[in-house]
From TrEMBL:
Keyword entries, A-Z: Coiled coil
UniProt KW Coiled coil keyword: yes
Coiled-coil segments: 87-135
InterPro entries (alphabetical): PspA_VIPP1
Protein name per the record: PspA/IM30 family protein
Family, similarity comment: Belongs to the PspA/Vipp/IM30 family.
Length: 214
């Protein structure tokens, strides 16, 4: 049952106080998580062994009780047959088995108490383990957010806002010049000439009108 002392020592630690005093809470949590995971594994093995021994002891109690009952019946049958010698032998073994049964029952009761105590300590251990796991998750999230904020601050610190504004202004002026040049070019574009065939027909009609007026 040495596992109980080790687990009890760990789970009684004030996790929050340790985290507050630590320079690197994440490293401390990682260390505690590794230790607790190791203890959880040991506690699981210890509980399995304890339950095995308890069941073996329970079997011894049942076997001893069965022998006691059997020897009691044998003694009764021997007395019914007036066979005192057999009755004495049966009663002697019955008394011996009753002594064993009493011892086995006391041992079994002690084992059950030990099992209950171990389960209680394991429950506390698992509670602390979950508490640390949640605390670690929160700290990791906060650390990542803080690092991202620091990176953003570093970018902003090196960012030349005035230079960027001047650069955009120069681009805007360039675009405005292009727009003005395009508008000026459109002003000087000559109208599209009429088709040569239509122009010749119009000339012929005007010539005919001029001749008729003469």
């Amino acid at each position: 049952m040495g596992i109980l002392k080790r687990i009890s020592t760990m789970v009684k630690a004030d996790v929050h106080e340790l985290l507050d005093k630590a320079e690197n809470p994440i490293s401390l949590l990682n260390q505690y998580m590794r230790e607790l995971e190791e203890q959880v594994g040991k506690a699981k093995d210890a509980l399995g062994q304890q339950l095995y021994l308890e069941r073996r002891q329970e079997q011894l109690v049942a076997e001893a009780a069965a022998v006691v009952a059997k020897r009691a019946r044998q003694a009764e049958l021997a007395v019914a047959k007036n066979d005192d010698a057999i009755a004495k032998i049966a009663l002697q073994e019955k008394l011996q088995q009753e002594a064993k049964l009493k011892l086995y029952e006391e041992q079994y009761a002690a084992m059950k108490q030990q099992t209950a105590a171990l389960k209680e300590q394991i429950d506390i251990l698992l509670e602390k383990y979950n508490e640390l796991a949640n605390k670690r998750f929160v700290l990791l999230s906060r650390a990542h957010a803080a690092k991202a904020q620091q990176q953003n601050q570093a970018v902003l610190a090196t960012f030349d806002a005035d230079g960027a504004v001047k650069g955009f202004n120069r681009v805007e002026e360039y675009v405005q010049k292009l727009e003005a040049q395009a508008a000026a070019g459109a002003y000087f574009v000559p109208a599209a000439p009429a088709a040569s065939h239509e122009l010749q027909e119009a000339v012929e009609r005007e010539l005919a009108k001029l001749k008729e007026s003469k």
